[in-house]
Amino acid sequence: MTDKLIIFDTTLRDGEQSPGASMTRDEKLRIARQLERLRVDVIEAGFAASSNGDFECVKAIAAHIKDSTVCSLARANDRDIARAAEALAPAARARIHTFVATSPLHMEKKLRMTPDQVFEQARLAVRFARNLCADVEFSPEDGYRSEPDFLCRVLEAVIAEGATTINIPDTVGYAVPELYGQFIRMLRERIPNSGRAVWSVHCHNDLGMAVANSLAGVKLGGARQVECTINGLGERAGNCSLEEVVMAVKTRRDYYALEVGIDTTQIVPASRMVSQTTGFVVQPNKAVVGANAFAHASGIHQDGVLKARDTYEIMRAEDVGWSTNRIVLGKLSGRNAFKQRLQELGIESDSEADINAAFARFKDLADRKSEIFDEDILALMNDESVTPAREHYRLLAMSQRSEIGERPHARVVFAVGEREHSAESDGNGPVDATLKAIESQVGSGAELALYSVNAITSGSTESQGEVTVRLQLGGRVVNGVGADPDIVVASAKAYLSALNKLHSNVDRVAAQG
Ligand code: KIV
Ligand code: ZN
After folding, report:
1. 246 and 105 in one domain?
2. Has residue 385 got a pLDDT over 70?
């Protein structure tokens, strides 16, 4: 008999903690819909008590998602837990995930609490959460570096209070596979009531072992839930990557003997959506979702694959959704076809005006680019720098001049709130001149921490350029993304998008603070 492995996606919570990866409510909702299509079992939608914005995101996701359980993180106190329950009220299936640190280092230096105080706080938090929600997960933060006797005492108590899932975070990515797997097994064996909860793994990737550690927690430790993110997104080196863990369990079913409910054909679309939304580019050689993951360059490999694909391929590209990279629309496509494709991509809007504006942008793009792919449509919808009236900074027009031997010059017209501004500058190149022109009017003082350009779809110079701009200002880091067949225009859009994020100024409590 095979067991089920629960896939708990935390792209929208732990993934979003990655500097610059913060997302708007609409972006999060779109990703949540894609996660539902992917059939993840649990979507951790955010940390409701961290900000009003996050509260609204969790609430909106709870109201829209029907097939996956929707979860909110909460520190182990009544206010956070009540706020999580309030945000989750509309959910068809809800989970409260409460946590408190249990390692000696975190208790003493960060919380300044004694172990007995932490024990009591954990127990009371789970008791309170269980009064509000039947599905309660408890995480001892920095659990892997916690002292085993104390951890067993805490976990036994929270299970007795009704915790239904026990998650063991390797918060700092310190674990190695065998030891992490044995740690989970030891806890399950020593805690008398361990059989009453589902055991879960949550590994960070600081030593590049998050996936290996999670799989060891499953195979050696007997965990039946993996916490992971799309593209391994997350703070520092990221989290366990959903696509890798899922495909490992599916491809090596002979070894793991576990069922996963994931629709793997939705993996690549999910990966693209997360990368395009956050501006975190996927490295080409990334397993499963990297552009080269199924590309065979060497003659020997190509010859082998042509004769029998399993000579060099252990998975099929189409099984993880690569085949969806097809032409979907062109310049003759009408509004209905466009609207339907938006719906298929999980982009729903109640506003006909928004759809009309997006359709106008689509027509404009289709005039300049003969083949429109799903990636182009997603980029078009992410293009908040031109969304009428909604964003503070919006691009209206621009031109630039660049000639060999001449210093490039740019002129940009953009809206700031209700007012139109025109700015000019020269620079080292047309992109430099354009960004300097905008900054000369806005005067944000932000430091440009990253600038990168990628082709949205491969194989042609007709492809749209996707630019990511990372700005840093007073401890805040934001990523702006812009796409256009003209990379200078894409750069202006990305810069304005980053300025919009700085302008929106979301103040958050850090989940691990
Ligand atoms: O890494 C961690 O410890 C966490 C907890 C809040 C679950 O993300
Ligand atoms: Zn984490």
Report:
1. yes
2. no
